[in-house]
Specification:
about 45% helix; six-stranded parallel beta sheet; alpha/beta; 14 strands; about 425 residues; binds nicotinamide-adenine-dinucleotide
Length: about 425
């Protein structure tokens, strides 16, 4: 099939690579000329394990090309995937200006019957609005399909090559059949392609993210209670995870969820529900609890240093909102670092891949260190913010030796409190049987 991707970001680039890899001809279009020029030379705009190889292989065979020319992208393809950003507006709703603006551009350019696929996360009713735009401006019939994306940054390629499920929202049998044909190679192990009505498909995406955000927030809230009652949230996690109704995943407490999706999607769903006169009270609390959670580590730091942190230096390990990505959108590290800087502290930070992106946001206020131990040297304490694997088995003896005093604030519970204390550290985790130091 001839496919065009409009919006070559995390979702568009990964999806384009996967479609090319299964033999389709893919044009990836973006308005960002620098990104497209880089991609033409094989320069990846994002860090995503395995992605560069797949793109290079398919580019060499001519199955994936990059352009800033929307007209060519529209006119050469039968299927147009809209993978545009839907950031949060001031009132919490999803900003649909790019999606609706591009929809009108596409409508005016179509030169034959097409399928337009909405891959962005959009509130219920958006696909109907896009369909209306097509009816008003397109000279040829256009089927608009909802096909929300569920990839996880860090494992995006694997998630897209082997999705747990593919959701297709359409009333058109023809469009559904084409979408099935397109996705069949990715679900050979039997994972489902679920065809449903458009509105349910749109809401399914929000339901998934809102549920996961709720699950992690519940554990964060419970961890804070553990700190107060002297229970260890790790035992509780193990104790409940073996119940299949609860499940093992997303039960790890930390410094709050961030990233490009959960925060904005939770708020957009809250806004949709409010607009419908059915406030989702649980989700509103999830957002409030999560906002507070991003400050939990700073409170622990303030308690340890009796509120006197001006002039102190903190080593921060991990900046990206989660491991295996350089995405810093809504990363909890930003909240923690900005708060500590406001309080007069100095920050030396290390991340295996996100330094360049973080530098663009935080600038010279932070000293960025290419090596983890460079950040630790001479610092008053180490703060773990992102649970990169290399931090899990780091040489703790060396950390102790390099810090002014052995103090660790572990925002991801990657170390064992007992072992750390035996090693002579003042150790603070999240919900680890109280901060007994
Ligand atoms: N990133 C994720 O993990 C993820 C997962 C699932 C769903 N989503 C959803 O997918 C959508 C896209 O997210 P993303 O993370 O890929 O965003 P992104 O910001 O990484 O990429 C969007 C791309 O669209 C381009 N763009 C903006 N305006 C354009 C225009 N007028 N014409 C052409 N290109 C334009 C941007 O330059 C950018 O490259 C969002 O709705 C998001 O919620 C994202």
């Amino acid at each position: 099939m001839n496919i065009s991707i409009v919006g070559t970001g995390y979702v568009g680039l990964v999806q384009g690579a996967c479609f090319a890899d299964t033999g389709n001809d893919v044009i990836c279009m973006d308005i960002d000329a620098k990104k497209i020029a880089g991609l033409k030379k094989g320069v990846m705009p994002i860090y995503e394990p395995g992605l560069a190889e797949v793109i290079q292989r398919n580019a060499k065979d001519g199955r994936i090309t990059f352009t800033t020319d929307l007209k060519t992208a529209v006119q050469k393809s039968e299927i147009l995937f809209m993978c545009l950003p839907t950031p949060q507006s001031e009132d919490g709703s999803a900003d649909l200006s790019r999606v609706l603006g591009v929809a009108e551009q596409l409508a005016k350019l179509v030169n034959a019957p097409k399928i337009v696929v909405s891959k962005s996360t959009v509130p219920v009713g958006t696909v109907d609005r896009i369909s209306k735009i097509m009816k008003t401006h397109a000279k040829h019939p256009v089927d608009v399909v909802s096909n929300p994306e569920f990839l996880k940054e860090g494992t995006a390629l694997q998630d897209s090559l082997r999705p747990d499920r593919v959701i297709v929202g359409t009333a058109s049998k023809k469009a559904a059949a084409i979408m099935r044909e397109l996705y069949d190679p990715f679900v050979r192990t039997g994972n489902p392609i679920i065809v449903m009505d458009v509105r349910s498909a749109e809401l399914t995406k929000y339901a998934a993210n809102a549920f996961l955000a709720t699950k992690i927030t519940f554990m964060n809230d419970l961890a804070n209670l553990c700190d107060r009652v002297g229970a260890d949230v790790e035992w509780i996690r193990k104790g409940i995870a073996s119940d299949p109704r609860i499940g093992k995943q997303f039960l790890f407490p930390g410094v709050g969820y961030g990233g490009s999706c959960f925060p904005k999607d939770v708020n957009a769903l809250v806004k949709t529900a409010e607009d419908q006169g059915h406030p989702l009270r649980i989700l509103k609390s999830v957002d409030a609890v999560n906002t507070d959670q991003k400050s939990v580590l700073v409170q622990k730091i303030l308690r340890h240093f009796d509120g006197k942190i001006a002039g102190k230096t903190f080593a921060v390990w991990g900046l990206a909102f989660k491991p295996q990505t350089d995405d810093m959108r809504d990363a909890p590290s930003l909240v923690i670092i900005k708060k500590l800087l406001e309080l007069g502290a100095k920050i030396k930070a290390h991340d295996p891949v996100a330094i360049e992106v973080a530098e663009g946001i935080l600038g010279k206020r932070v000293k960025f260190c290419a090596k983890p131990f460079e950040a630790v040297k001479g610092a008053d304490a180490l703060i773990i913010v992102t649970e990169w694997n290399e931090f899990r088995s780091a040489d703790i003896g060396k950390v102790k030796q390099l810090l002014k005093k052995p103090v660790v604030f572990d925002g991801r519970n990657i170390y064992d409190p007992e072992e750390m204390r035996q090693f002579g550290f003042a150790y603070y985790g999240i919900g680890r049987a109280g901060d007994k130091n």
